[in-house]
Amino acid sequence: MIEHLPLYGKHVLVTRGGEKGKKLAGEIINLGGVSYVTPLIDFQENDDSKAQTYVEKLHEYEWIIFTSQNGVDYFFNELKKLKAICKFDSLTNRIAAVGSKTKEAIEKYNIEVEFFPKQFSATDFIAEFIKEKEVAGPVLLPKGNLASKTIAKGLEEKRIHVDEWIVYQTFLPPESIEKLVTIVNENELDYAMFTSPSSFHHFMNIVKDYSLQNKIQKIEFVTIGDVTKKAVEEYGYKVVASPAIYTIDCMLESLCKLQIAKEERK
């Protein structure tokens, strides 16, 4: 019976867009919940004036470190656009990845990931990377415009040269503003799910601009990653579920476990 599904009757805000957002929303419905998809971040190619320079000296980088799936895909799109190499798997650089999904994205280009940390945060990455690898540098770090500088700063503190190539831009889709305001005003949301600090910052900007503070008091927040969790907490809100493994599937699983535990306590 549908009443026995873990998210039965729960209203959940999904702030991730694209196919991943649609997939998550569908899974919430299958678990008995009501989902509201409102993408609070989107991505586009960044026109970096230094792109040609990075490409021309690509062979000089000892390591290329990827911190997100977007970083991977936009990086290889840039190489293709600038006709930097004929085959992606001909790269001679050593490759590192933060997160299992980032690693999978790299491997889709038939490229081996040499270093993959046991923990997924940028801080843990630096600690493990420096400990396990003798890094001389230089290092190339393809990333988004709002990505953390933790890895770059950590390497620079060890006197390792780092070039941060901004390969994509993160922005708030304008059409999502009115949609979010309507959803918050007209529905009693139980949970809101966030996959990045940027999406939560955008959420709070809208809340502030439209005076929705009272409307979100009962919403419980679910996140991926320490950085996203910290962003929520810095606004004074509590994160009720955040998985150890930074994937959307694990985030949904952690929400289900939370809701099941709540029902058992009744």
TrEMBL record:
<protein>
    <recommendedName>
        <fullName>Uroporphyrinogen-III synthase</fullName>
        <ecNumber>4.2.1.75</ecNumber>
    </recommendedName>
</protein>
<feature type="domain" description="Tetrapyrrole biosynthesis uroporphyrinogen III synthase">
    <location>
        <begin position="23"/>
        <end position="252"/>
    </location>
</feature>
<dbReference type="InterPro" id="IPR039793">
    <property type="entry name" value="UROS/Hem4"/>
</dbReference>
<dbReference type="GO" id="GO:0004852">
    <property type="term" value="F:uroporphyrinogen-III synthase activity"/>
</dbReference>
<comment type="pathway">
    <text>Porphyrin-containing compound metabolism; protoporphyrin-IX biosynthesis; coproporphyrinogen-III from 5-aminolevulinate: step 3/4.</text>
</comment>
<keyword id="KW-0456">Lyase</keyword>
<dbReference type="Pfam" id="PF02602">
    <property type="entry name" value="HEM4"/>
</dbReference>
<dbReference type="GO" id="GO:0008168">
    <property type="term" value="F:methyltransferase activity"/>
</dbReference>
<keyword id="KW-0627">Porphyrin biosynthesis</keyword>
<dbReference type="GO" id="GO:0006780">
    <property type="term" value="P:uroporphyrinogen III biosynthetic process"/>
</dbReference>
<comment type="similarity">
    <text>Belongs to the uroporphyrinogen-III synthase family.</text>
</comment>
<dbReference type="InterPro" id="IPR003754">
    <property type="entry name" value="4pyrrol_synth_uPrphyn_synth"/>
</dbReference>
<dbReference type="GO" id="GO:0006782">
    <property type="term" value="P:protoporphyrinogen IX biosynthetic process"/>
</dbReference>
<comment type="function">
    <text>Catalyzes cyclization of the linear tetrapyrrole, hydroxymethylbilane, to the macrocyclic uroporphyrinogen III.</text>
</comment>
<keyword id="KW-0808">Transferase</keyword>
<dbReference type="GO" id="GO:0032259">
    <property type="term" value="P:methylation"/>
</dbReference>
<dbReference type="InterPro" id="IPR036108">
    <property type="entry name" value="4pyrrol_syn_uPrphyn_synt_sf"/>
</dbReference>
<keyword id="KW-0489">Methyltransferase</keyword>
